[in-house]
Amino acid sequence: MTTQTTTETQTPATPEAPKALSYATLGGAVLSFASTFLAWTWTAEFPGNLTVDGYPGGLQLLTLTGALLTAVLVLGGLGIPGLRWATPGGKYASVRLMALATFATTWFTVIAIAVELGGLVNLEPGAWLAAVATALTVAVTFALPREAEPTGTSGWATFAAFFKAPAPAAAKELPSWAEILLIAVAFGIGLLAFTYGIGTEGAEDFLGFLLLIGFGVAALNKSGLSRRLTGLTVKHKNVTVTAAFVSAFAFPFTQTSDAYTSVGTNILIFATVALGLNIVVGLAGLLDLGYVAFLGVGAYTAALVSGSPNSPFDVHVPFWAAVLLGALASLIFGVIIGAPTLRLHGDYLAIVTLGFGEIFRIGMQNLDGTSGPDITNGPNGIPNIPDLEMFGFNFGESHTVLGVELGRFSNYYLLMLLVTIVVVLVFRRSDQSRIGRAWVAIREDETAARAMGINAFRLKLLAFALGATLAGLAGTVQAHVTYTVTPAQYKFVESMPPNSAFLLAAVILGGMGTVSGPLIGAALLYLIPAKLQFMADYQLLLFGIALVLLMRFRPEGLVADRRKQLEFKETGQLDTPKGDTGLSKAGV
Asked: What's the pTM value of the predicted model, to 2 decimals?
């Protein structure tokens, strides 16, 4: 008789730290929290008014938030009842990162005060206490045990091991209403963070906000909370999409100034066009470097037929007709450009699409009555595009909705949100359809896809045409938002999006083939240049450095699907998952 012995592989337990270290970290967080209730400088010349005792303001609120989250993670790691949910994964790596978030924000503030006001003499005791407390907190967190062994003997491998954390254990099953409530709370917190970030008054406040968000999100990832939330959103996909759009709908009602809503409107335009490009690049794998031209086709079409006094055509059609005409014109251009060029591959296709984008811009510039027919008014473009009016609702006037006065940009924001919903629905339906699976097959290996009977050329042309149509749809709204359409708005690369380079970067940064990825990427790439205008001269340099770092440390993007995670990360499993896992189940 043969006896078989089965050995189960167990995940190594996280080493326990001396409680004295955890309590020391907690004490540092409490001191950091208390320092925000003291004045940090004596003059109100620094943004945020940090001169008041007992009332945190400006960047002090960020230090307060970081210290509070650090304390919560420490208490969760100690197993305090009611807070164990905070650290289902890494107990120590998450605390290190959150302490670093508080440290980076606080020291940035202290240095900024000293530089802008002319020396350390301008610091009050509260700033000194905050600087010392956050520095000591970070030092203590590095005395906490590592939760993973280094993957090598180099100094970098040893340092990186401090920030590795085990995967969280399986979550306890909750009632459906509780899971839906958690999703709603998460999106509410996201809306609060976005509203704070877009409403920051100075570059100092926004840079501090970016530091806290960057390190803070990494800390929540290591704690396992992000993975738990992802599990809930995958389980309740329709609820997640609904919560996302409800949060987006609520945004203009949280604003007291239409200036910030204008930023939100332009972010939606940029994000919607990026999502259309995601069909071409993310699903079908076609590198299009002239995609912004399709946005221009839609915008110029709407400008010509919407009653502008500078249009050579004395035509003023309803908005729904302008939308259809703009989308149809972009579709026709997409087919005309795609039909002869989509038999090319890789770099050759990229060069051709780049040429199309420049040909469109130069063509619009030359249709001025001198170099060509007088259609687009040349480099001056088509100005004085009237505001939309539908069913007696004038988008250029302020309206009171639910007791809140909404200005011009708020009206266009809500209209653009409807367009974004349409584009998201088209993307999701396409992704989950037979055509979407064929696009993914072509993206992964076109030769194998052809061998399986897929008509690659026809499906690539369909992706190209659909992406162009969605860009044209967004362009019709953009024309009315900006009042003016000019060729200079549709360059390959420019300091401010939307342009082809930034659109492609938004897709890659956010995560190709996903819905939320390009939306997040577009929001970041628009909001950061808009807030940090003092860095405009170095913007493209910093943009390039950021892309290099992204490709090095997170090539799958900020929001990666399951296939990209398996492709770029060491998972310790076979390339082909066991069982019947289709593309949709794999998160593609």
From this structure: 0.83
